[in-house]
Design brief:
Helix 3 (110-119) packs antiparallel against helix 5 (219-236). It is globular and about 55 Å long. With 323 residues, it is α+β, with helices and mostly antiparallel strands. The chain contains seven helices and 20 strands. The chain has helices at residues 3-12, 44-53, 110-119, 135-141, 219-236, 256-262, 291-309, and strands spanning 16-22, 34-40, 60-63, 69-71, 76-82, 90-94, 100-105, 122-123, 144-145, 148-149, 154-161, 166-169, 174-177, 180-183, 205-213, 215-216, 269-270, 273-275, 283-285, 318-320. The protein is 25% helix and 27% strand. Bound molecules: flavin-adenine dinucleotide. The site of flavin-adenine dinucleotide has 35 residues, from strand 3, helix 4, strand 9 and strand 15.
Length: 323
């Protein structure tokens, strides 16, 4: 991006623009390179205004809480936009014939949606308590756990594109799959493995908000479920060390963790990164890991599982930037 252009834009905008922003502070792996430009919008209008003002061709990386993201050590040549400070509204939603629900903007943390729903005697969003990302990230990933997925409870979403045009869309507008959401009719560049699971194409479009359709029920029961779910996570996941959740999707009928463990990789370290000895589908940063160490372990797990079982593991985490 041309510096002068950005500075001119900043004059009309109310958010915070930063140069050479270290991404390690914004991703749950606490590793990785620098973003050339980072923007923290002030609110929804400012967010839309900033998108409109970007030069055509400037790569945009929409980012929530970075809980599924690895930025390579060489950094990002583009603009990262953070949603979590700006798109924070959460309220009850009346969905007409569809019933009741919760409206949450893309920057709201998923556990907040789960708690807010329970507080308002609405049930069905408990699983979101276990997902340490934003609503936008959960929509992009179709995040889920314990048998529920984000798009199971979506009534509709609001999106915005680079021109600032907003649209209301429903599930029918997307091909929704396990950890994968693609806008129908969008051209997906064949050389872009990241495209699967994102909302991309010629017309880039991002999530601004979602209305979740939920049933009336017992808030107390819902809070109990949330507590149980979090207990299970603490028992099975290496939550004490920086990680990005499951690195790979589970192949049909099997578990990535089982396959990686069967290859003898539990506890294997490269630099300061390690395949968790608690859960083999997690890679943890033991302090000062480079993104390259983490990626090398990802490649090692992929190679080993392919050699031993003939199974190609698909990545759930998104890897962006220059090596
Ligand atoms: C300890 C731990 C446990 C986890 N457990 C689970 C789990 O049980 N189930 C599960 O599914 N995931 C899990 N995850 C992974 C992660 O939390 C989810 O993928 C989450 O949905 C990512 O949200 P985020 O806001 O952090 O997104 P980010 O990591 O910031 O971004 C992820 C992707 O979403 C895109 N994105 C973000 N915001 C938007 C937007 N507004 N519009 C369009 N695209 C957007 C980004 O461009 C990127 O491609 C876990 C992670 C951790 C660290």
């Amino acid at each position: 991006m041309n510096m002068a252009e950005t500075d001119n834009l900043a004059a009309g905008l109310r958010g915070e623009l930063r140069r050479r922003e270290p991404m390690a502070g914004h991703v749950s792996w606490r590793a990785g390179g620098v973003a050339r430009t980072a923007y923290f919008p002030a609110d929804l209008d400012d967010f839309v205004g900033f998108l409109r003002s970007l030069p055509a061709g400037e790569p945009v990386y929409m980012t929530g809480l970075g809980s599924n993201l690895l930025v390579r050590d060489g950094g990002l040549r583009g603009t990262v936009i953070f949603t979590h400070r700006a798109l924070r509204e959460i309220r009850l939603d009346h969905l007409g014939a569809l019933g009741g629900g919760v409206y949450a903007e893309a920057g709201v943390a998923c556990p907040k949606v789960a708690r807010y729903a329970a507080l308002n005697e609405l049930v069905g969003a408990e699983f979101l308590a276990g997902i340490p990302g934003t609503v936008g990230g959960a929509l992009a990933m179709n995040a889920g756990c314990y048998g529920s997925e984000t798009w199971d409870i979506v009534a509709h979403v609001l999106t915005v594109d680079r021109t600032g045009k907003t649209r209301a869309r429903t599930r029918e507008d997307y091909e929704v799959d396990y950890r994968s959401v693609v806008l129908r009719g969008q051209e997906i560049p064949p050389n872009l493995p990241l495209a699967k699971g994102g909302v991309r194409g010629d017309l880039e479009e991002w999530f601004v908000a979602a209305s979740f359709r939920l049933k009336r029920g017992s808030g107390a029961e819902s809070r109990g479920k949330i507590t149980e779910l979090l207990k299970r996570r603490i028992a099975t996941q290496p939550l004490g060390e920086p990680n990005a959740g499951s690195v790979f999707r589970n192949p049909k009928g099997d578990y990535a963790a089982r396959l990686i463990e069967a290859c003898g990789l539990k506890g294997r370290a490269i630099g300061k990164a390690m395949i968790s000895d608690k859960h083999a589908n997690f890679i943890v940063n033991r302090g000062g890991a480079r993104a390259a160490d983490i990626e090398a372990l990802i490649l090692l797990a992929e190679h080993s599982v392919r050699e031993k079982f003939g199974i190609v593991l698909e990545r759930e985490v998104r890897i962006v930037g220059d090596g």
